[in-house]
């Protein structure tokens, strides 16, 4: 199991586009991937799960990966969050 944290800096938080990108990355490997923010822990392979956490700009999120490909997924998701999912 690996985990890492990053601060969401997208002005609208994790709205549909970044949530879709996070889900796409999470689905690329067979490991379990969870997003933790405040009291929420959601399945990061589910766009609706990510949206249900209502992550706002400036909030810190923790990504937890467990299983085959966990390090790859963690690295890619943290890079995407830090790069604002390519959205300006």
Instruction: Provide the gyration radius in Å.
Output: 11 Å
Q: Which word captures the global form? A: globular
The profile of the biggest β sheet is: 4 strands, antiparallel
| Uncertain runs | none
Number of helices: 3
Structural class: alpha+beta
Could you estimate the helical fraction of the residues in percent?
Answer: 25-40%
Number of strands: 4
Task: State which percent range the strand residues make up.
Answer: 25-35%
Give, in order, the helices and strands: EHEEHEH
Average pLDDT reading? 96
How are the SSEs ordered, and which strands pair?
Blueprint: E1 2-7, H1 16-26, E2 32-37, E3 40-43, H2 47-52, E4 60-66, H3 70-82
Antiparallel strand pairs: 1-4, 2-3, 2-4
Helix pairs in contact: 1-3
